Amino acid sequence: MSPIQLFPLLAALLLAPLLRSVINRTKAWIAGRRGPPWLQPYRDLRKLLGKGAVYSQTTTWLFRAGPVVGLATVLVAVTIVPMAGVAAPLHFSGDLVLFAYVLALGRLATILAALDVGSSFEAMGASREAAYSALVEPVLLLGLVSLGLVAGGYSLSLIYCGGLAVGWERSPEVVTLLAFVLFVVLLIENARMPIDDPTTHLELTMIHEVMVLDHGGPDLAFIEYAQALKLWLFIQLLVGIAISALAVTGWPGVVIWAIGTVAVGVVVGLVESAMARLRLVQIPQLIFGTGAVATMALLLQIV
Amino acid sequence: MDSMLSHLLVLLLFTDLLLLGTSRIRVSIRVVAAQGIVLGLLPFLLHFSDGISPSVIAAAGLGLALRGVVFPWLLFRAMRAAGVGLAATPTISYSTAMFLGVLFTGYAFWLWSRLPLPVPPESPLVLPVALSTQFVGLLLVITRRKALSQVLGYIVLENGIFLLSVGLKIKEDLLVELGILLDLFVALFIMGILVYHIRREFDRIDVDQLTSLRG
């Protein structure tokens, strides 16, 4: 493996928690605060990894498997997603379906672990997560398939390394629509602001945070790290589109990729500062709307 | 040039979806204003190749000013006079409306592939976008409950018709075009006054109440 192939992978594994800092610092900056230190996510992870784990007697192996499966599935996804315009280590035609469903498997593990606790509060979060992920799944797949259609291939590496450059030339408006779709999917999949408030705990309207309330110690560290990686991956799907437009490869491409990744993080932070969380009943409406836009993108290409 | 045109047309489709999905009248008016500005730019783009004559500039400029600035201003005034911010729950849900919109756009695309046209349009998107804009306008008029939302639907419907005539480069007299714009302007003016009066008589502009007025 050449260094340029290895570098994005290492960056993903090492720098993903830093991206959370970028978002948090952006929010703090808008609100006029100083915000937590840049390395706070790493400190949290170290603290959690140093702790022991406590398991309730009502839980079974499902509860312990949740965080492990969650992290493992995200790590598999990391090997599929091309970063910095460099083909991913693992690629084959149709790997975008694997990307969608390997993440769905991780989510299933988290949901089962939450149900295993037997707490009605966590079960409520699990039910919400299941409902919204079921709604957003077709939107994600529709977006990725449209992206494949415009780029002329159904492998993420093919799409992001060359395919989209053609797509930008052929129908830029479709790619722009799809970038919008993927951005909303990013917010939904990662339980970010207009859908879920990542900063609150013990509030009746939250979705993701409520499922992991009973996890502690290394388990929680796994979940937090997996979340950070997942956010990183979805941001890569967006940044990849922008890089393809510029059509730069090699190390200059890596520099632009790094800038782009931070920029998308800042945009997520700005969205979170500017918007209030949607009411729970309005979320399906947002998802339907995004799905409608994705369908439009698909229709525009069939013409 | 061509990509600029399709960009604008896709933007129009996007605004159509937005109109179907939003419940805020303030947002709707802004979206309609954006739609008017995009439509106002289209004649300039389409006539770019065969030279821009003063009459094109006059008609397009006037259309841009009316659709992009005057209409939204009138609508905002009517909104303030009627004191409405949020649309009443429409007869079909926003999600269903968006679904119908997408469905009809698909149908419009299919229709375009089978419809022989006397003049080939500049972009393959012109006809489908025009048809689905008309459909969205119609849907808004039928399903929305408040008079102001229905006025918005009327404007969107007209936008679709305008897009069709511009996109197919149907040569219209300057006089005819000015006449249409004047009609629209007067219609909107009267609708604004009507909304105000409905509100003053019945304390709300929910038109469902009007059906119980018989006899």
Kindly summarize this structure in a few lines.
Chain A is mostly helical. Chain A has eleven helices and no strands.
Detailed description of the structure:
The complex is a heterodimer of chains A (303) and B (215). Chain A is mostly helical and 303 residues long. In chain A, 75% of the residues lie in helices and 0% in strands. In chain A, helix 5 crosses helix 6 (156-170), helix 5 (120-151) runs parallel beside helix 11 and helix 9 crosses helix 10. In chain B, 74% of the residues lie in helices and 0% in strands. Chain B has seven helices and no strands. Chain B has helices at residues 2-21, 25-46, 54-82, 94-114, 126-143, 147-167, 174-202. In chain B, helix 6 runs antiparallel to helix 7. The mean pLDDT of chain B is 82. At the A-B interface, helix 7 and helix 11 of A face helix 1 and helix 4 of B.
Keywords summarizing the entry:
heterodimer; A: 303 residues; mainly alpha; 11 helices; 75% helix; globular; B: 215 residues; 74% helix
Give the secondary structure arrangement, pairings included.
The complex is a heterodimer of chains A (303) and B (215).
Chain A: H1 3-31, H2 40-50, H3 61-80, H4 95-116, H5 120-151, H6 156-170, H7 172-189, H8 208-211, H9 217-246, H10 250-274, H11 283-302
Helix pairs in contact in A: 1-9, 1-10, 2-9, 3-4, 3-9, 4-5, 5-6, 5-7, 5-11, 6-7, 6-9, 7-9, 7-11, 9-10
Chain B: H1 2-21, H2 25-46, H3 54-82, H4 94-114, H5 126-143, H6 147-167, H7 174-202
Helix pairs in contact in B: 1-2, 1-4, 1-5, 2-3, 2-6, 3-7, 4-5, 5-6, 6-7
